[in-house]
Design a protein that fits this description.
- The chain has 561 residues and is α+β, with helices and mostly antiparallel strands.
- Helix content is 51%, strand content 14%.
- The protein has 17 helices and 13 strands.
- The strands form three sheets. Strands 1, 2, 3, 4, 5, 6 and 7 form a seven-stranded mixed β-sheet that branches.
- Strand 3 and strand 4 form a beta hairpin.
- Helix 14 packs antiparallel against helix 15 and helix 15 packs parallel to helix 17.
- The longest helix is centred in the C-terminal third of the chain and has 42 residues.
- It is globular.
- The two termini are 47 Å apart.
């Protein structure tokens, strides 16, 4: 699932009935989740956060912008925050399984549609900017709403989309693509804002002012242009300040990480720990403000496991647990991953419908019921997942076997590969059932008119092709497991060699079982070239799987007999 976040800022922060009309429109799009609504009375501005798949987000953002155009009158707007439009800014942010380059494409699609269909002057900023000068939002918004009539007449500031015409009620809009921003606070065992600020200045990119003589009270150094000279801090893409939180009775270093690919959360935490210790303080934990992508937690979990010379090839839930404990995210209050991780919030409504969220006995009962799904395809995927899980278990056991301390990273790498394959095969358990349902839906389409018959036939063929592709992926992923299984049979903990053997049996069964599903579905497909190619490749995979199974079993038996 590709996920992007969208954070439109609307120029209304006092009348929440107006904002509700806007967010209600955004929520009419399937697949979009409203994550947060943050109004500000003084700024007269509301920041809304939604997330979902790219196409759905673009549609939801457009509907929100359109509604804001109808219900917000900029000619009457007053507030402390810079602004130049009813929807002032609308950034798209890549969260998971999508690149910044791909996100930029969607941002420009949204910008073009807003300009063409709504007539609003649109400036593309940050990564979506067409001109370097427009990358900076402050440049795009310079002069604000009051300066728009003159700005729109300046050829240098012709909008990227829409007409160069002043709309008194609506103003203009900046649409862009930017990196994910994480708001993150570090807890200190002090009540001193000054000392928290010292740590903040140590780590933030901007650093602290350079002073003559005394570094605290000395005269601030300025360059030949009269600008303040700073001593840079230790972290890039990091903004920070110290403050005292009366609610908790402690001082914190309040951090905004503007690009977690440059400075991840765990790096900021470790640097704050180091700088606090140098100043005689101790970090007691940290606090995540709002939500963050899953990657933040899995990367942190792996980082702290590696520090312990432990295998990182553990489950996602275990990585999250390690991250939460290592970062002290539960220091001030309980930390619930289902409420703080974006992907989990988005999938919350679907989790109870997944086969792989059932207990083992419930899954077996569902398979044994009168329902045709889950069937052999899902079972094959599950066998593949179990096969690679056994190999991953051997790798993890081997990584901390007494006397093998120097080999932990070798086995950690194998375990990490195994976890990736396991996760993909688990996903395919449910996806095989989804593929079956697509075929049933296609057969249920109306077939009265010639056009309906043609549409139904096309839908059946497309669904059938998908129902071939899914078990074929099961074959590929299960076959990929043999590399890990064989390595564990040859070099892993000898006490677990029989587990590697069972893994080989399960992986071979997964390959052969999935191929049966490929073949039965291929019999109904008219695209013979596609079928011939799949059958050729499928036979190759099956034959190689049987060969590798025999090789692995020979290794296993040589060690246990």
């Amino acid at each position: 699932m590709r996920i992007i976040e969208c954070v439109p800022n609307f120029s209304e922060g006092r009348d929440m009935s107006v904002i509700k009309q806007i967010t209600d429109q955004m929520q009419t799009v399937d697949g979009v989740k409203l994550l947060d609504v943050d109004p500000g009375a003084a700024t007269n501005r509301t920041v809304v956060t939604i997330a979902g798949e790219p196409e759905a987000i673009v549609e939801a953002a457009f509907r929100g912008i359109k509604k804001a155009m109808e219900v917000i009158d900029m000619s009457k707007h007053k507030g402390e925050h810079p602004r130049f439009g009813a929807t002032d800014v609308c950034p798209l942010v890549p969260v998971s399984n999508i690149s910044m380059e791909e996100t930029v494409v969607f941002a420009k699609q949204l910008a073009e549609r807003v300009g063409n269909e709504l007539g609003i002057p649109v400036y593309c900023y940050e990564n979506a900017a067409f001109h370097d000068k427009r990358r900076n939002l402050a440049n795009c918004r310079a002069g604000e709403y009051e300066g728009l009539p003159n700005k729109l007449q300046d050829p240098e500031w012709k909008p990227d989309f829409g007409q160069a015409t002043f709309l008194p009620r609506t103003g203009a809009i900046a649409i862009g693509a930017r990196d994910f921003l994480v708001a993150y606070n570090i807890n200190l065992n002090t009540t001193s804002t000054r000392r928290a600020n010292a740590v903040a200045f140590d780590i933030r990119e901007k650093g602290r002012p350079m002073r003559e003589g005394d570094p605290v009270v000395g005269k601030v150094v300025k360059d030949e242009n009269g600008n303040q000279v700073n001593i840079p801090g230790s972290l890039k893409a990091c903004k920070a300040i110290g403050w005292f939180i009366e609610e908790y009775g402690i001082a914190q270093v309040s951090i905004n990480l503007t690009n977690i690919n440059i400075t991840p959360v765990h790096v900021a935490f470790e640097e704050a720990v180091k700088k606090a210790q140098e100043r005689g303080m101790r970090v007691t934990g940290s606090e995540l403000v709002g939500l963050a992508p899953l990657k933040v937690f899995t990367d942190a979990g792996k980082f702290f496991l590696r520090k312990q010379n432990r295998s990182v090839g553990v489950s996602e839930s275990e990585l999250i647990k390690i991250a939460v404990k290592s970062l002290g995210l539960d220091d001030l209050k309980p930390f619930n991953p289902s409420e703080k991780i974006i992907e989990y919030v988005l999938n919350k409504d679907n989790r109870n419908n997944k086969l792989m969220d059932m207990s083992c006995s419930a899954f077996a009962d569902e398979t044994a019921s009168e329902s045709p799904a889950p069937g052999g395809g899902s079972i094959s995927a599950y066998m593949g997942a179990l096969g690679v899980s056994l190999a991953t278990m051997v790798a993890n056991l081997s990584s901390h076997k007494p006397g093998w301390d120097g080999r932990w990273e070798e086995f950690s790498n194998w375990a990490e590969k195994g976890q990736l394959l396991k996760d993909e095969l688990i996903r395919l358990v449910d996806e095989d059932t989804n593929a079956f349902n697509k075929i049933m839906d296609a057969f249920g389409m109306p077939k009265g008119t010639d056009q309906e018959k043609a549409n139904r036939t096309l839908a059946i063929q497309e669904a059938t092709k998908y129902a071939i592709e899914i078990p074929f992926k099961v074959m590929e992923k299960s076959f990929a497991a043999f590399e890990i299984i064989k390595a564990m049979a040859e070099t892993g903990n000898p006490n677990s060699v029989s587990d590697a053997g069972v893994g080989a049996l399960a992986a071979r069964s997964a390959v052969m079982g999935a191929f049966l599903n490929v073949k039965i579905n291929a019999s109904g497909l008219k695209d013979k070239a596609f079928v011939d190619n799949v059958m050729k490749r499928g036979n190759e995979i099956q034959n190689n799987a049987i060969k590798l199974e025999n090789e692995i079993l020979a290794i296993v038996n040589s060690k246990i007999i």
